[in-house]
Structures are given as structure tokens and as C-alpha cells.
């Protein structure tokens, strides 16, 4: 399956000398996309013993194995996989890039948020561009070219696309197989690797059982305001421990948080985030799964738009002390752009909060997403008033 990110890395290697860092959840397709886009390349993974020996021996050892000192009429491409598991990965990359960066083009992949695991050494600032890889989305299943504008034209979807994504999630293998039996086994194996291997090895957290309890509580509360004290009471640890564990789960791409936007919002909430999962298929409640589905698509979009250089984008929610709430706000260059309210059923009345906040923060667009409406072949971003929009139309215009 061709991914959007293959074109991205291929374009990066052709146009930039900086290293490309591709981070994302386990089994989202990072290694496949990196290797497909790198063409003729050398591949080193920390999970293979012989490669570990070369890497720990230092940059010169890897360069010798790549025969960089042999005259060549082309740049050599190299992919380093799961390098963040090496304690001194940052020092290794700095040394390799500074000495051999002119003769090579480098791609690094990692199943953890690479910036979270920096351990000593000089900064890599200026030596890499970070790209965050997400699961499959509605728009990516229809187009993989890189556009110059954040939103594209609407595209009519096959009828089964959204139900299939909702049921099996956006990770390529279970989505393509669309088998409940395979999905159940895949899901169990992935959770075991996350909580019994990655959590222990990458974060040094030993209380795996309690972290799994926390993860289940986060799943049951997806889309709700996060109460650290309540979670601490249920898991029987300190509040600071809960904060540290949630940060670790975020770094391993289990969950992500969305914070309130409070500029130009009187009496707004300022601190309490909402939490969502990277894999929305883990949620049993239909309404929560649909809201998480939209949240994941919006996060993918703001990450993509930011990573390819279209501006600085962020994802927030709106809520004030009068309990007026809108599920999501997308911000471009620190200015409100569009709001999204998720409705599971075809409601014919616009949420009053959309009109209130559209005037309050001067957002350009306000959408109430309905999953039960049929696709409409019109650009929903042309409207400058609150609008009820089919989920299939809205999602097809994102990334």
C-alpha cells in the first residue's frame, strides 16, 4: 500500500541535506515507507545484533561498512531504524552527520517521540527535519500527493471506507485484512509489546501493570476532561506519578492530549486537557470512538501541515466556566482557523456554542460534523458561517 509519507520522504531526500526523522506508533508503517522512499540504500536497525555492534563502534564504523570512502557519482542513502533505543543515539547521529553528511542522505525512524528521549550531548538543531507519521485516514486513502494548500477538494469515498476505518483502526495491516480474528490477535500483541517492552526499556518505568490500568482508564475517559487527582486515586499512586506516566504514554504514541484555547475567551478553562487515543478502535462507546476518530484526523492534519512547512498549526478545544464547549479548534500561526463539533447523529440544529465562539474568537469556519449525513460534493471551507457537514465530506478535505 502506497503511503502519503513515501512521497514526503522522497521529496525531502531530493531537496534537503538535513536528516529526515520519521516518528510514529509501532506498526504504523514507518520502516516500510522509509525504505520505499530511500531507493537504493543501506539499512541499519538497532533490533539486529550485528547492526548494534556497528553503531556502538561509532560513525566511522558505519561509514566503513557503507564504503563511503570509495568514490561514487551519487549520494548514498541510509536508513537507521529504532535508533532511539540506543542510549547515545543523539551523539552518534551528530557525529555521523557532521562528518559524512555531504556524501549521504539520512532517514531515522522511531516508534517513540524522538525528542522525548534525548540523553545528553549537543543539540541536533539544524541537522534534521521531523516528520510525524500517523495511521491511515480518510483523505490518505484517496490521495497521496503533497499539496500546496492545507485543505484539498472534497472526494467521494467508497461507502465502506469510514466504517472499515472505525472498526479496524488506521494501522495498515489490520485495516487491509479487515478480519476481526486477525485484528483481535494483532491488538493483543501490540499491547503486549507496548506495555511489557517499550514502556520498560524506553522509560525505565517498572510498574507495567499499574500503567496498563491507567491506560484502560484513559480509554474509558477518552474525550473527557482529564482529572489527574481522580486517576491517581484509582491507580493508587501520586498525582505527579500520573502526570509522568501519561507523558510516557504520549511519548510512546498510546494517547495524546488536547488543551483548551483561552485567548479571547472570557472565563475560559486554562489547564485541564482532554485525552484521546492514537488507536480509536480501542474504544467501545460509539460516540466516544467517533469523536476520537475526528480528533485523530485533526491531529494528523495539524502535524502534517506543520511538518511540511505550511505554517504553525495547533489543535485545541474550547470551554468556558458557563460550560459552553466546542470539541476542537484548529489554530494557524496562533490565529483561530476553524472549529469542529462532533455529532454522532444527523442533528438539524447547529450547536449554539459554535455561533458564540465564532463571534468571540473570529474563527473563519465552524463545522458540526454529522456521521449520518450522505456525502456532499462541495468545499465546506468556503462557508463563513456555522455549517452542518457530512463526516465524509469534511474528512476527505483533510490529510
Write up this protein.
With 399 residues, the protein is an alpha/beta fold. It has two domains: 4-132, P-loop containing nucleotide triphosphate hydrolases (Rossmann fold); 161-396, no CATH class. It has helices spanning 4-15, 30-38, 49-57, 59-66, 89-100, 161-168, 172-177, 180-203, 208-220, 228-235, 239-251, 286-307, 352-361, 391-396, and strands at 19-23, 41-45, 76-81, 104-110, 128-132, 255-260, 274-277, 313-319, 325-332, 335-343, 365-370, 386-390. It has a seven-stranded mixed sheet, sandwiched between helices. α1 (4-15) crosses α2, α3 crosses α4 (59-66) and α10 packs across α11. The radius of gyration is 22 Å and the shape is globular. The protein starts with a helix and ends with a helix.
Q: How does the SSE layout of this entry go?
A:
Layout: H1 4-15, E1 19-23, H2 30-38, E2 41-45, H3 49-57, H4 59-66, E3 76-81, H5 89-100, E4 104-110, E5 128-132, H6 161-168, H7 172-177, H8 180-203, H9 208-220, H10 228-235, H11 239-251, E6 255-260, E7 274-277, H12 286-307, E8 313-319, E9 325-332, E10 335-343, H13 352-361, E11 365-370, E12 386-390, H14 391-396
Please sum up the structure shown.
The protein is an alpha/beta fold. The protein has helices spanning 4-15, 30-38, 49-57, 59-66, 89-100, 161-168, 172-177, 180-203, 208-220, 228-235, 239-251, 286-307, 352-361, 391-396, and strands spanning 19-23, 41-45, 76-81, 104-110, 128-132, 255-260, 274-277, 313-319, 325-332, 335-343, 365-370, 386-390.
Amino acid at each position: 500500500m502506497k503511503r502519503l509519507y513515501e512521497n514526503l520522504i522522497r521529496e525531502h531526500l531530493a531537496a534537503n541535506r538535513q536528516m529526515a526523522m520519521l516518528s510514529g506508533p509501532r506498526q504504523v508503517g514507518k520502516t516500510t515507507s522509509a525504505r520505499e522512499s530511500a531507493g537504493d540504500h543501506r539499512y541499519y536497525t538497532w533490533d539486529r545484533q550485528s547492526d548494534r555492534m556497528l553503531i556502538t563502534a561509532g560513525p566511522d564504523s558505519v561509514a566503513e561498512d557503507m564504503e563511503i570512502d570509495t568514490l561514487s557519482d551519487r549520494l548514498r542513502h541510509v536508513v537507521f531504524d529504532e535508533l532511539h533505543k540506543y542510549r547515545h543515539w543523539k551523539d552518534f547521529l551528530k557525529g555521523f552527520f557532521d562528518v559524512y553528511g555531504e556524501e549521504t542522505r539520512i532517514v531515522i525512524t522511531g516508534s517513540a517521540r524522538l525528542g522525548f528521549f534525548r540523553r545528553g550531548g549537543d543539540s541536533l538543531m539544524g541537522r534534521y527535519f521531523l516528520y510525524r507519521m500517523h495511521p491511515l485516514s480518510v483523505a490518505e486513502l484517496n490521495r497521496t500527493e503533497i499539496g500546496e494548500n492545507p485543505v484539498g477538494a472534497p472526494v467521494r469515498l467508497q461507502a465502506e471506507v469510514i466504517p472499515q476505518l472505525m472498526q479496524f483502526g488506521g494501522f495498515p495491516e489490520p485495516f487491509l485484512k479487515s478480519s476481526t480474528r486477525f485484528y483481535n490477535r494483532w491488538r493483543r500483541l501490540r499491547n503486549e509489546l507496548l506495555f511489557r517492552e517499550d514502556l520498560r526499556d524506553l522509560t525505565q518505568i517498572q510498574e507495567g501493570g499499574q500503567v496498563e490500568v491507567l491506560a484502560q482508564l484513559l480509554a474509558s475517559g477518552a474525550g473527557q476532561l482529564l482529572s489527574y487527582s481522580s486517576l491517581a486515586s484509582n491507580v493508587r499512586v501520586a498525582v505527579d506519578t500520573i502526570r509522568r506516566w501519561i507523558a510516557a504514554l504520549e511519548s510512546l504514541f498510546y494517547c495524546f492530549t488536547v488543551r483548551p484555547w483561552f485567548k479571547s475567551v472570557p472565563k475560559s478553562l486554562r489547564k485541564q486537557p482532554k485525552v484521546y487515543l492514537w488507536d480509536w478502535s480501542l474504544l467501545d462507546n460509539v460516540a466516544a470512538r467517533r469523536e476520537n476518530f475526528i480528533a485523530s484526523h485533526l491531529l494528523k492534519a495539524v502535524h502534517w501541515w506543520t511538518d511540511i512547512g505550511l505554517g504553525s498549526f495547533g489543535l485545541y478545544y474550547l470551554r468556558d466556566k458557563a460550560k459552553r464547549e466546542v470539541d476542537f479548534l484548529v489554530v494557524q500561526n496562533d490565529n483561530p482557523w476553524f472549529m469542529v463539533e462532533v455529532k454522532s447523529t444527523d442533528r438539524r440544529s447547529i450547536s449554539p456554542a459554535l455561533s458564540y465562539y465564532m463571534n468571540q474568537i473570529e474563527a473563519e469556519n465552524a463545522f458540526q460534523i454529522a456521521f449520518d449525513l450522505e456525502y456532499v460534493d462541495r468545499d465546506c471551507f468556503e462557508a463563513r458561517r456555522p455549517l452542518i457537514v457530512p463526516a465524509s465530506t469534511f474528512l476527505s478535505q483533510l490529510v
